[in-house]
């Protein structure tokens, strides 16, 4: 039957079927694309990891609320005293209701109303504002120091992930290479070239390579979880990946220049310096609080039908309490802040010196491996493997060269990791990631 011969009802039915098929196909394609997108892991490098941690780490976010709390205290410090309203009605004959007449109220009863306001002396409000602002500045620097510490922790954990990845890749490569050796040994055993005992030794050695792979997989999984904890569990998905490799990038560094940079950039040192200013502000506030405030009252009174206006002044006489104890305490606090600042300077110089020496030592160790030891270990393993497969070397010689090669490769990767950690420690010690 042709299309023209179909009834209109059949045509509509076919159109509905075609439309349903198209919708089902599109829906399946959307679900497949969404599934692929959801299954695609997030890929982050070191700089992205640091930025994510600074934005999403909950411990750091909690510390930042301290800045907002201090800013709220600035508002409190700037508030003026509230005026007070007083009123009273005296000589009302409630116990003698018969005397409660308009003449009695007009001639005997007294009505008073007044407004009082306290004038702060000694520039207390300005001193409170300055003290609150200085404390906000100190808290901001302390939060910046928390960011510095968090950045180092993220970089350290990121390097641990890179080391675990590199170790896993090495273990997998060694396992695949040794599997070829096992296959060759099986062929040689079948041909009668080696004994069954040597073949069993070769196969038992596979267990070590398989164990290395499993241990490396566990180390990588644990390192990824620890890094995610630094970044924030809600900031990255569970199946995220890291981008980067262990690498040696030499830098031209001078200890004196680094120490000068640290004195300029370290936020904990800035906090200590600002702590002196904050202590001086507290001292000025304590002196201002020693001044007694003046309270003035404007009072309206109506007595015996006469309207009166009066002024009342009230000030405390500072004979005994002149805030002596708080003034003395805040004065000692200035000395304490100065000593803290000096101690922090010494800590900064020590941190840079230690980090600088650690960096130089780590760099020298990496250079030793790259100067020839890596190639020698590779050549020794290749020569022993080539000789063993052709019957020119013993099984023990081959296994010994294999162990030496693995140990050298692992030590080299650990040396690269130590170098990168030393570089991050130097960045933390100087307070900046931009090193010359």
Could you characterize what this model shows?
The chain is 71% helix and 9% strand. The chain has 10 helices and 6 strands, in the order H-E-H-H-E-H-E-H-H-E-H-H-E-E-H-H. The protein is elongated. Strands 2-3-5-6 form a 4-stranded antiparallel β-sheet. The longest helix is centred in the middle third of the chain and has 67 residues, at 124-190. The model is unreliable at 1-38 (pLDDT under 50). It has 436 residues and is α+β, with helices and mostly antiparallel strands. The chain has one domain: Up-down Bundle (Outer membrane efflux proteins (OEP)), CATH 1.20.1600. Strand 5 (294-303) and strand 6 form a beta hairpin. The protein has helices spanning 8-39, 46-56, 58-77, 102-107, 124-190, 196-231, 255-265, 267-289, 324-389, 395-430; strands at residues 43-44, 84-90, 110-119, 241-242, 294-303, 306-315.
Query: How is the biggest beta sheet arranged?
Result: 4 strands, antiparallel
Using DSSP, what is the number of strands?
6
Distance between the termini: 83 Å
Q: State the domain count.
A: 1
What is the correct CATH architecture?
A: Up-down Bundle
Secondary-structure map:
Blueprint: H1 8-39, E1 43-44, H2 46-56, H3 58-77, E2 84-90, H4 102-107, E3 110-119, H5 124-190, H6 196-231, E4 241-242, H7 255-265, H8 267-289, E5 294-303, E6 306-315, H9 324-389, H10 395-430
Parallel strand pairs: 1-4
Antiparallel strand pairs: 2-3, 3-5, 5-6
Helix pairs in contact: 2-5, 3-5, 5-6, 5-8, 5-10, 7-9, 8-9, 9-10
